[in-house]
Amino acid sequence: MANYEAPSKEIGFVMQRVLDYQRLNGLPAFSEATSELTEAILEAAAKFAGEVLAPLNRVGDIEGVTLDGTEVRTPEGFATAYQKFVSNEWLGLAQDQDYGGQGLPFLVHLAAAEMWNSACTSFALCPMLTAGAIDALSEHANNELKQQYLPNLVTGKWSATMNLTEPHAGSDLSKLKTRAEPHGENYLIKGQKIYITWGEHDMAENIIHIVLAPMIDAPSGNKGLSLFLVPKYLVKEDGSLGERNDLKVISTEHKLGINASPTCVMSFGENKGAVGYLIGNPGDGLACMFTLMNHARLEVGLQGVALSERAYQDALAYARERVQGRNAETGESARIIQHADVQRMLMQMKSITDAMRGLTYDAAFAHDFRVNSETEQQRQYYEDRFALLTPVVKAWCTELVNEVTSIGIQVHGGMGFIEETGAAQHYRDARIAAIYEGTNGIQANDLVGRKILRDQGAAIRVYIEEIIESASVIEKNTELKDIARKLEEAARNLDAASKFIVENSKLGQGFVGVVAFNFLMMMGYVCGAWYMARSAEKAISMGLEGDPGFSERKLASVNFYFGQMLPRHKSYMDAVIDGAGAGMALKESSF
Known about the structure:
By secondary structure, this protein is an alpha+beta fold. The chain has a domain at 441-585. It is 58% helix and 13% strand. Strands 3, 4, 5, 6, 7, 10, 11 and 12 form an 8-stranded mixed β-sheet that branches. A two-stranded antiparallel sheet has the order 1-2. A two-stranded antiparallel ribbon has the order 8-9. Helix 5 packs antiparallel against helix 6 (121-140) and helix 13 packs parallel to helix 15 (509-544). The longest helix has 37 residues, at 285-321. It starts with 7 loop residues before the first helix and ends in a 7-residue tail after the last helix.
């Protein structure tokens, strides 16, 4: 297993050049967040990821977590690393300064979070959920709850969870049986939740559970759901911790991967009831929870980027050392990186990762502008862009990370199937990402049903028009004419597919379900092509500025993507337009 080294140059290239970080720095909210400051922060984050978190990855996978009664013990070194994470104030990078945060762009947080997820995904899941809970409280909680809970969540001194799923109700939240009963000014929560990531652990002194549940007299269905803050330890008026709340972990799951991240079955209110505090208004629970979930979905997509990067680094290091076969030209013993098929696999891993990073970072870029733009028109523009890209980031990146980590095993050959190399762990850790925070089928239905059909394709048309306009500019560079042509063709194909969906949406939800996933995958490849084409433009200028090595590697990645990855979008388009009928003809008796 190779040592993890944060791809700082790649990350800086996307942030500073492809996305033009100076535009963020030009917003009044980020006037002090200069490129120089950002670079220094990310250098420190890279060091923390490589020196503190990366050594925990293998240890955590082997040891896993242990349940001792109602206490969960994390693997050796995790609690110490978490305290360092808190003391370095990493979680507060993009948080509100009124609650102890540093007020930097969310894009900066996302870049640092990529490093943490590459280094140790199991560890990174804990602050990821806390950050999502901070978003939900910041947007929906009353001032009293904000003042009492946000400062300790922003520092990471307290962690947070998201409690949705129950044994009988997966994604269908209208079936929840957990109930909230009014009790004075607060509520008593009773019920059971499953798949609660970091639901119990020994790293933070308090755990704040964000729980979705209907009140006892609420109407049935999603409109009856409310959201509650339920702390592990009750908090006194002076901010100190009081008695333990009536909640506990019943068991922890034995999983395929992310073994150092406890996935808990939580019981609330077995005795008198767990004290909970209403977030937002009664019946607005699902809307409030989606603030947390949208944050989580973006960062889960980021996990796809991060684990792909880690798998690529390990595969590349192995390929440079492993001697097998002979060089086709010299006849001498060869390291496997000299073999054409291995080169193909490595570049497939790299180009996919590069494309995913561009897409994911652009979604974070849009988030910063939707919150901090000075005009309503600009805020709405980026609101639409963020909404459009979020399901694509989550689903496309987490589909492809399964492919990239699988290729990583293949590059290792037989050793990839041996746990000691670490290649298998990346594959196992990645597999959950396509499932949690809403399966990728749910993301696809969201993209088509809510983001495409709700505005009859208006937002995606704006996005496609920008791609086409960008292609016309890129074409002026004689080195990039072929890439520009392919980009424009792909954008027009995406436009044709989106129009086909809008025109045929009257066929009903069955039609949407049949075309949604293939359309999302098509869109992912086309989006990725746009960021790669923009990367090519900037890479050429970097070569002219005296960095020919980086420029050469980047252009190789871009050319490979356009030659071998982008063509996939056509098969997905065919599945949308020509294959819809075959999908709609299926019924239960077909199986």
